[in-house]
Structures are given as C-alpha cells and as structure tokens.
Amino acid sequence: MIIKKILKVIRWTIGVMFVSTILAVVIYRFIPVYFTPLMFSRCFEQIAENKDVKLYHEWISMEKMPKSMPVAVMASEDQRFLTHHGFDYQAIEQAAVDHLEGGKKLRGGSTISQQTAKNVFLWQGRSWVRKGLEAYFTFLIESMWSKQRIMEVYLNSIEMGDGIYGVQACAKRNFGLDAKNLSRSDCALIAATLPNPRRFSSKKPGPYMRKRTREIERQMRTIPAFPKEH
C-alpha cells in the first residue's frame, strides 16, 4: 500500500514537472526573458564575495539588432544553426575524433539552441542530470520556437561580460552605442568573446581578440544573411 502511494506521488510529480516545463517553453515563445538562472547565480556570487552587484540587461527585439549580429555568433559558435535541429552531430563526432586521436580535452561543442536552453531554463554546472535536462529543453524549444525566436532569446540572454547580458547591454556598456548602431566588426568582436566573456573583453580587446575577430569576420562571408520570420 505504501509503495503504491509512493509510486503515485512520483507519477504525479513527474506529470506536474512535464506540464510545467512545456508551459514555460510556450510562455517564453511569446514574452521577453528578463531574468535567467545565470543572472541570479552571478548576483549571488558577487554578494558572497562582498562585491557590488552588477546586472546590466535590456531586452530588445531582433528588428532592433544589427543584421550582422546573428551572422557573427553563427560564424563563431554554431555555423550549422539554421540547418540542424538543436544538436550538431557532425561537431560532436569531430570533437570525439580529435579527443581520441590527439588526446585533447573533449570540446563542448554546444549549439546556440543548447546554450539558449541552458541559459534560460537551467542552473550552471556539469552533471549528467543537467546535461539530460539541457537536451530535453533543447528538444522543446526546437519543437515549439522558430529559429528566429531561439536566436532572439540567445542574443538577449547570453553573458557578454562581467554582469553584462545581451547585445543591447553590451553595446551600451562596452561601445557606448545602441545595439542597432554596432558595426560588422563590432558584432564580430562581441562574438569573439563568447567562449569566455568574463575573461575576454569586447571593451578592451587584446591582440588575441583582434586576431580572433578578423577570423570571425572572414567566416561571416560564408554565412548567409539571417532570415526574417515568416
């Protein structure tokens, strides 16, 4: 009898979680994402270290972003974003081959969709549970959102500096501009910081960042213009 009650509670809990996650994805298909778990986590870190809390974030639509911005992050982070369904199996396979042949540390290779799912719905950290949930939420947003919406949320929520989230906040803090006025080179420079935006700065780029920016600009020539939502 007790076992049946426990199983019933487990089934009910799983059902509630399943419905609530789908509901959250549906809601964020239409409304801006003003706060993410990462933003809260960084604020708590700053408080714990007795630092001033920094949180710069301003939501803007894709129409108010420069056309080069999505192209730049695709060139830098996920060149097959428009053609895959959330997971770049070619990149995963290549990372595994590089690891086996060269003994190198296995690269992350997360797609823009995976990064969006992680930033918006999950906590930071590395565990099989979190990776499983990341795959689950990636599947949901790829199924329920358009590529344009995924990119819009990504460019508004991604960490782009110390306490800086999204392209508008980055443009204002690091360039003194509205995002719509960023140049093609500015967009490439921002994209160049994304592997580690708290280490690499788009405000004061060093020689390595300049070199990486030029490489991204070169790759941008092979990336098609980001399509408008139909």
From TrEMBL:
<comment type="pathway">
    <text>Cell wall biogenesis; peptidoglycan biosynthesis.</text>
</comment>
<comment type="function">
    <text>Peptidoglycan polymerase that catalyzes glycan chain elongation from lipid-linked precursors.</text>
</comment>
<dbReference type="InterPro" id="IPR011812">
    <property type="entry name" value="Pep_trsgly"/>
</dbReference>
<keyword id="KW-0808">Transferase</keyword>
<keyword id="KW-0812">Transmembrane</keyword>
<dbReference type="Pfam" id="PF00912">
    <property type="entry name" value="Transgly"/>
</dbReference>
<feature type="transmembrane region" description="Helical">
    <location>
        <begin position="12"/>
        <end position="31"/>
    </location>
</feature>
<keyword id="KW-1003">Cell membrane</keyword>
<dbReference type="InterPro" id="IPR036950">
    <property type="entry name" value="PBP_transglycosylase"/>
</dbReference>
<dbReference type="InterPro" id="IPR001264">
    <property type="entry name" value="Glyco_trans_51"/>
</dbReference>
<keyword id="KW-0997">Cell inner membrane</keyword>
<protein>
    <recommendedName>
        <fullName>Biosynthetic peptidoglycan transglycosylase</fullName>
        <ecNumber>2.4.99.28</ecNumber>
    </recommendedName>
</protein>
<keyword id="KW-1133">Transmembrane helix</keyword>
<dbReference type="GO" id="GO:0008955">
    <property type="term" value="F:peptidoglycan glycosyltransferase activity"/>
</dbReference>
<dbReference type="GO" id="GO:0009252">
    <property type="term" value="P:peptidoglycan biosynthetic process"/>
</dbReference>
<dbReference type="GO" id="GO:0016763">
    <property type="term" value="F:pentosyltransferase activity"/>
</dbReference>
<keyword id="KW-0472">Membrane</keyword>
<keyword id="KW-0961">Cell wall biogenesis/degradation</keyword>
<dbReference type="GO" id="GO:0008360">
    <property type="term" value="P:regulation of cell shape"/>
</dbReference>
<dbReference type="GO" id="GO:0005886">
    <property type="term" value="C:plasma membrane"/>
</dbReference>
<keyword id="KW-0573">Peptidoglycan synthesis</keyword>
<dbReference type="InterPro" id="IPR023346">
    <property type="entry name" value="Lysozyme-like_dom_sf"/>
</dbReference>
<dbReference type="GO" id="GO:0071555">
    <property type="term" value="P:cell wall organization"/>
</dbReference>
<dbReference type="GO" id="GO:0009274">
    <property type="term" value="C:peptidoglycan-based cell wall"/>
</dbReference>
<comment type="similarity">
    <text>Belongs to the glycosyltransferase 51 family.</text>
</comment>
<feature type="domain" description="Glycosyl transferase family 51">
    <location>
        <begin position="53"/>
        <end position="220"/>
    </location>
</feature>
<keyword id="KW-0133">Cell shape</keyword>
<keyword id="KW-0328">Glycosyltransferase</keyword>
